[in-house]
Amino acid sequence: MNRYLSPAIRGSRRAFTLTLLLGLTVLLFPPGLRAADAFRFAWLSDTHVGSANAAEDLRAAVRDLNALPGVQFVVLSGDITEYGSREQLTLVKDILADLQVPYHLIPGNHDTKWSESGATDFPRVFGADRFVFDHGGYRFIGMHQGPLMKMGDGHFAPQDLRWLDETLAQLPAPRQPIVFITHYPLDDGIANWFEVVDRLKKVNTQVVLVGHGHSNRKMNYEGLPGVMGRSNLRAGQPAGGFTVVDVTENAMTFSEHIHGRATGNPWHTVALGARDYTGDTNRYPRPDYSVNQAYPHVRPRWQHVTGFTIASTPALWRQLAIVGDASGTVYAFALNSGKIRWQFKTQDAVYTTPDVAGDTVVFASADGGVYALRAANGRLRWKHQTDRPIVACPRIAGDVVYVGSSEGKFRALNLADGRLLWEYDGVEGFVETRPLVHDQKVIFGAWSCCLYALDTRTGQLVWSWHGDKPGTLLSPAAVWPVTAHGKVFIVAPDRKMTALEARTGRQIWRTGDYVVRESIGLSEDRERFYVRAMNDFFYAFATRPDQPEKVWATNAKFGYDINSAMLVEKEGVLFYGTKNGLLFALDARTGAVRWQHKLGTGVMNTVVPLNAHRVLTTDFDGRVALIEARP
Predict the structure, then answer these.
(1) Is the pLDDT of residue 11 over 80?
(2) CB 208, CB 225: distance < 8 Å
(3) CA distance 43 to 242
(4) What per-residue confidence (pLDDT) applies to 29?
């Protein structure tokens, strides 16, 4: 074979190769967009400032980034802080202020679930909790998946999905290449993962970048190329690290950079090019609603979707159901039809469950206000303003409103005019629970491992109780305590349930045998309390004995569930909604499952039964629904 090629032939081949490369570039970067030269960016994740050494590790990353050649911007893919507190967020911002290049960041579950502000301080501190920008012809889109306030799977909020739709609709060219950044892996660890997967497969998505797993991994999400990036934390090693991403015309490479060292060789490469996912004929798993076919007599009487996350339980007043959402709007729905009777707008999200007494409904907002409205028409009676966002649920007893806060204080307000009656300033951590008022004591937990009992008349501390497992995230803070026969019953993320003497706080018994979490309820006759285990089981226990005495156990086969919704009995039926939108009705005396109904995919909040056959529900999808089990 003659290996000699004439200059003319060699020139033709070079021209063909150049034409081919230009064609590929046009496919990746459509008309109207221009491919920039190769560029480099840094990717940090899971910085967890507020945990041990985390601030020092972030400072080390900033020093290295400022010395690292070619880095043009930085993205941070969530869990920026340990608890999402204003102090931790502000510290992160102060550290990142030393960066010499722009940065873009989103929150993770640690910034949203355990946030004293219901994650509203994140955009206050950083200006936004999602981002979109163009660089090198690529569009970078960052959006988090919570969960907001409640334990459960990740969940893309309806307001964020709407924003994503608007962002994708505004692409300067339909085939502009996309880099999508979120915190959780884009799989069924997010309750409605498919909502984003399906959207990203309609556009030219090049890669999905995620955190959460604290390790470097190659991922794939129904054909979408994915990469998980390591945590910035040292995690027992001498130094932490981050990811350096180099983008060339046809590849994106990922290299690990350990603080204080040279960047390592690439550990992964994603090929870049025009992507068309329409040819994928695989059938991927989607949420299963077939359980509804087994109980065809159970169906929604009406539904209303507000378009914003709902993370609280409605309060009832006559024929109205009153509840707020992430837009800061409080709605009153007619129970018979679901029609909106009135609305009231606050200045920030409302994640608290209202309480009602007489013609007054009281709730709190992340704008720091405690509001009292006329239940009949939504007109403002009074507002008590505080210095921090409030996610604590108020409780009315007599003519007093009891409400916690996110500033270390618990307050008693006059129901008639909102005047401060007393204030206890010894609370460690923030309060989100609905307090229990019993025997001249108001009892509540906080994110400090403590349960407090205050004198309802003076606000003086009567007793406090502390669990035997250290760790803020194990606090009895989300549970709504219940009481019967001189005892207070609680469950907590430490997987234990506890009975305390209501008068003194003395621990009567405590057990971890049933692997519970935060869901509890009390029977109408106060003879039983109910709990939900983290896998499959509901239990009932007698309230009179001085040791745990199981009345019944039911394997309801709901799988793994960590929702922090309470269990509620009405007319002999026990109701509960799971983290994935499955509503249960059980016989309260035997535990037998009467029926189930799946409404959606996200967290169902504590439900409100109207009677044994009708129950009012709300969920993370922004849905308010009246479910009816017809004879």
Answers:
(1) no
(2) yes
(3) 6
(4) 53
